[in-house]
Amino acid sequence: EPEVTQTPSHQVTQMGQEVILRCVPISNHLYFYWYRQILGQKVEFLVSFYNNEISEKSEIFDDQFSVERPDGSNFTLKIRSTKLEDSAMYFCASSEITNGELFFGEGSRLTVL
Amino acid sequence: AQSVSQHNHHVILSEAASLELGCNYSYGGTVNLFWYVQYPGQHLQLLLKYFSGDPLVKGIKGFEAEFIKSKFSFNLRKPSVQWSDTAEYFCAVIPNTGGFKTIFGAGTRLFVKA
User: Fold this and answer.
1) Among residues A33, B39, B54, B66, which one has the fewest Cβ atoms lying within 10 Å of its Cβ?
2) Which is more confident, A33 or A98?
3) CB-based burial of residue B36 (10 Å sphere; 0-12 exposed, 13-18 middle, 19+ buried)?
4) By percentage, how much of chain A surpasses pLDDT 70?
5) How big is the CA angle at A47 (ends A42 and A49), to the nearest 5 degrees?
6) Residue B95 has what pLDDT?
7) Contact B92, B41 (CB under 8 A)
8) How far from B3 is each of A57, A66, B6, B23, CA to CA, in Å?
9) CA A68, CA A8: separation in Å to the nearest integer?
10) Which residues of chain B are within 8 Å of residue A4 when distances are taken between CB atoms?
11) 3-class secondary structure for B23-46?
12) What is the pLDDT of residue A65?
C-alpha cells in the first residue's frame, strides 16, 4: 500500500538554527500539506500546496516557514530560525482531491533547545 | 471561527463495552466529515468519512458514525470495543468552501482494559 514517508523521525536543534523536514507524498496525489501537533494540543493546519504553489496557509505559517517541492517527489518544510515554541510533531500529508481523505506520514518530532 | 469540539479527552473502557465519542463542529454550510485514528507509535489514518448520502457511515474495524445535520454532530460509535482499539481518535472537518484546510478536534484518548 502506498504511503507517505517523512524524514527525519526525530530532530533536536538549537534555538535559532534552520531545520528542514522532508516528506515524500504518495506519487499520484496532487495536494500536499503540513500539520503540526504541539505535545498535548490539537493537530493544527500549517499549509497546503498544490500545483507548485501554496494554496492556503494558517496564521502560524509566518515568514519563518517555507515549503517547496524541489524535485517532483520530495516536499519540504523549512523553518529558518527555530524558536522554542516550534517544538512539536510535524506531520506531512497528501490527498488525491482537495477536500478528501488525508494520508499522513508518521511525523517528524522536532525538539528545539 | 470554524472549530471542532470533542467532548471527551480521555475515555477508559473495559473490553466489550460500547463506545460513543462525541464530535460537534461549528460551520453553517456543507462539510465533509472524518474520523481519524492514531494507534500507539503509528501515523494518523482514516477510520471513516462522510461526504453525502446516508448519514450513518460505516468504517473499518466495526466503527460507525452518524451525521446529524441539525445538531452539527458526527459522533463515533462501536458496539463492543477491544483492547486493540486503544488509540487516540480525532474528529475532523473540511468546510466545502473550496478551501484546503482540514480542521481537527483536540482528540480523545481511548484506553481499553483487557
Assistant:
1) B54
2) A33
3) buried
4) 100
5) 140
6) 87
7) no
8) 16, 25, 10, 11
9) 17
10) 43
11) EEEECCCCEEEEEEEECCCCCCEE
12) 97
**CA nearest to A49, candidates A64, A63, A27, A34:** A34
Average pLDDT, chain A: 93
pLDDT average, residue stretch B43-63:
94
**Contact criterion met (CB < 8 Å) for A45 and B103:** yes
Which cell numbers in the block locate residue A59? 496564521
Cβ pair A55:B100 closer than 8 A: yes
Distance CA(A27)–CA(A103), nearest Å, equals: 12
Beta bridge partners of A79: A19, A65
pLDDT of A21 higher than 80? yes
pLDDT of res. B30: 87
DSSP string covering chain B, please?
--EEEES-SEEEEETT--EEE-EEEE-SS-EEEEEEEE-TTS--EEEEEE-SS-SEEE-GGG-EEEEEGGGTEEEEEESS--GGG-EEEEEEEEESSS--PPEE---EEEEEE-
pLDDT at A59 over 80: yes
Question: How is residue B18 written as a grid cell?
Answer: 460500547
Looking at residue B110, what is its pLDDT? 97
- Cβ B15 vs Cβ B35: under 8 Å: no
Report phi then psi at B69, rounded to 5: -60, -40
pLDDT of residue B59: 93
Predicted confidence at residue B42, as pLDDT, reads 86
CA-based nearest residue in chain A for residue B43: A106
